[in-house]
Write a structure and sequence with these properties.
This protein is of the alpha/beta class. Helices cover about 45% and strands about 20% of the residues. It contains 15 helices and 19 strands. It is elongated, with a radius of gyration of 26 Å. The mean pLDDT is about 90.
């Protein structure tokens, strides 16, 4: 079937037709580097990763740009609290993001853009908007976008234009705001004492950019004035992506982005996960409970990227069991097989239908149960699929057990041979307390480390 995606702009499924095939330009909203990204943020980045992998798998030449927001209200506020320069403060969290990215097996973007490196490009767009009459200077020297001048404002978020125009007479200088606060938004913020040393001397005056103009400048500089796909979470639709469209298209007179793709919320106990609410988890929190980053990735792929997904410890525990079982089975399969074309066709069909990862995961289990396939062919086929899924199944390694765990395994096997089941269960619990899981099979006990893809068969 043809590759198709759900386009937020049109609210419909559309066949994907890139502007300049086979090249595809993707801009993905990345982290604001004022703290460690939480697992809700990583749903957006893993979704973008699956999209990039899918396009590459299908033969497209992908160029992905991801921004790193290193100047905005939050980065300024928190760098001052920490008593650090804006650059030093944001660089630390940038490196933390890169570490998490690698742990989650996210393919690196082709270009990471820091907002502070694109001030000149932002100023140029703002000057164009001023010249065209879409922007104006306020009394304090800040520059605002006039939403009433843009007749198409609201087309992405599908807000009522009449309501917007009634509320457009005011201005809002904050980077983030709610739908019921629709006002002219800041493109350039004149300096005040609260900004400290976060300012630039430009033709617009002494100040700094607003959040929204940053992404327009970074994306168009690297992908052109019109490009194929823009990704982000549903929370970015308004105001951020709506404002990106307005300022970009009014400046260039061209369509900014052809396909807008957004992932759904990752909830925690059925509530929005957010730093502002204090109900979020970091990857480190998962690791402390024996949940590896790749287990979290497996958990996310079990739901469609556009659906709401509720995070609970029970649910992630189920994902861990499934992933560790999958890793153990893949590890034991022989290598050097052939990819089964029938299954590959099914997989391609599933991922081509708006990135259908739940069906793709189910297909892997179907392959493992298929008695008509050679074991080596099963492995070759699944590893081919993992080029898209990114579960690290091509990097599985044998598990080297600590001496005390080996001793407990041997003691447990002796208890089992003596049919002392109570003692065997007690020893199993001791092994689990040390961070390992035991699975009894016809070939003997298999053991995996909690939260790890590595597996081994005991020689006890």
């Amino acid at each position: 079937m043809a590759l198709r995606f759900y386009n937020t702009l049109t609210r419909s499924f559309e066949e994907f037709k890139p502007i300049n095939p086979p090249r595809v330009g993707i801009y993905s909203c990345g982290p604001t580097v004022y703290g460690s990204s939480h697992i809700g943020n990583y749903r957006a980045y893993i979704f973008a990763d699956i999209l990039k992998r899918t396009l590459s798998y299908l033969g497209y030449e992908v160029k992905q740009v991801m921004n790193l927001t290193d100047v905005d209200d939050k980065t300024i506020r928190d760098s001052q609290k920490a008593g650090k320069s804006l650059r030093d403060f944001t660089e630390y969290f940038t490196q933390e993001f890169y570490k998490d990215r690698d742990l989650l097996n996210i393919v690196s973007a082709d270009i990471y853009t820091k907002a502070t490196d694109y001030i000149n490009e932002m100023v140029s767009i703002i000057e164009t908007l001023l010249a065209k009459g879409y922007a104006y200077k306020s009394e304090d020297g800040s520059v605002y976008f006039s939403i009433e001048k843009d007749k198409e404002y609201g087309k992405l978020s599908h807000l009522d234009l009449g309501t917007l125009k009634e509320g457009a007479s005011g201005r809002i200088k904050a980077d983030e705001y709610e739908k019921d606060n629709v006002h002219d938004f800041a493109l350039w913020k004149s300096w005040d004492k609260a900004d400290g040393d976060a300012y630039w001397e430009t033709s617009l005056g002494k100040g700094r950019p607003g959040w929204h103009i940053e992404c327009s400048a970074m994306s168009m500089k690297n992908l052109g004035q019109s490009f194929d796909i823009h990704t982000g979470g549903v929370d970015n639709i308004f105001p951020h992506h709506e404002n990106e469209i307005a300022q970009s298209e009014c400046a260039t007179g061209k369509t900014f982005v052809k396909y807008w793709m957004h992932n759904g919320w990752l909830l925690v106990d059925e509530k929005k996960m957010a730093k502002s609410l204090g109900n979020f988890y970091l990857l480190q929190d998962l690791s402390e409970r024996g949940i590896s980053p790749l287990v979290f990735r497996y958990f996310l792929l079990g739901a469609h990227y556009r659906s709401k997904l509720n995070f609970t410890w029970e649910a992630i525990g189920g994902a861990r069991t499934a992933y560790e079982r999958l890793a153990a089975e893949i590890f034991e399969l022989p290598s050097h097989g052939n990819i089964n074309q029938n299954y590959k066709n099914k997989f391609t069909e599933f991922i081509s239908d708006d990135l259908g990862t739940p069906r793709a995961l189910a297909l892997i289990w179907e392959i493992l149960k298929d008695s008509t396939l050679e074991p080596a062919d099963k492995k070759a086929t699944i590893l081919d699929f993992d080029k898209v899924l990114g579960l690290g199944l091509d990097k599985l390694e044998p598990l080297i057990l600590p001496y005390n765990v080996q001793a407990l395994l041997k003691e447990r096997e002796e208890a089992r041979r003596a049919k002392n089941w109570q003692l065997a269960d007690e020893i199993r619990q001791k092994i689990e307390d040390l961070g390992y899981l035991v699975k009894d099979t016809e070939q003997g006990p298999k053991i995996v480390k909690k939260g790890s893809a590595n597996a081994t068969q005991s020689t006890a």
